[in-house]
Write a structure and sequence with these properties.
The chain is globular. It is built from five helices and seven strands. The chain is an alpha+beta fold and about 180 residues long. The protein folds into two domains: about 60 residues, no CATH class; about 100 residues, K homology (KH) domain (GMP Synthetase, Chain A, domain 3, 2-Layer Sandwich). The strands form three sheets. The protein has a three-stranded antiparallel beta sheet, with no helix packed on it.
Length: about 180
């Protein structure tokens, strides 16, 4: 897909939202099935299933990205998509873009051994470095970086507290809500 094609798509979507503000509301859905051991498969729309596994140290076969890898991948790919979309909308030519991401996890929290020390089970921090090549001026690229940082939905989701709820259906009986998921 060319930069002109991306610009046309972005402009058309923005116009559609302007014409019908309710069309801006989207609902994402996914279904994940456990395949045994620590291997799962994620299904989204009619796309091919995506395997999810853990490294051998966690009892997996290291045959696919882990959930932690997918968080980094989600942030990195969202940034890449936003760079492509906003650069095209701003008339900025990108020669190349890549992002390097890292996340730090303390296994004390993951295994419930750090609760009394305030160690969470999830990532303690995430960091990334966007590497941008473009013939545009540094000032223009900085404007692009600022726009991407302000508008990237996955970055926003990771930085802002959001409501997450969940229920469990246990042996056919729906409606169980754990204290953590409430």
């Amino acid at each position: 897909m060319s930069q002109a094609t991306v610009k046309t798509a972005v402009d058309s979507l923005a116009a559609a939202i302007t014409d019908n503000p309710k069309s801006a509301r989207l609902k994402y859905r996914a279904e994940v099935n456990w395949d045994g051991d620590v291997h799962c498969t994620s299904q989204v729309r009619d796309l091919p299933p995506v395997p999810v596994d853990e490294p051998e140290a966690f009892g997996g076969g290291d045959a696919a990205q882990s959930p932690g890898d997918l968080i980094l991948t989600a942030l990195g790919t969202c940034q890449g998509i936003m760079y492509a979309a906003l650069a095209s909308a701003m008339g900025i030519e990108l020669t190349s873009y890549k992002v390097k991401l890292e996340g730090n996890l303390d296994l004390h929290g993951l295994f419930g051994m750090g609760t009394d020390k305030g160690i969470p089970p999830g990532f303690q921090d995430l960091s990334y470095e966007s590497i941008i090549e473009s013939p545009a001026s540094e000032e223009v690229i900085r404007q692009l970086v600022d726009a991407v940082e302000a508008q990237c939905p996955i970055l926003d989701t990771l930085q802002r507290p959001i409501k997450v709820t969940g229920t469990a259906t246990i042996n056919g009986k729906p409606g169980y809500i754990s204290a953590k998921a409430a």
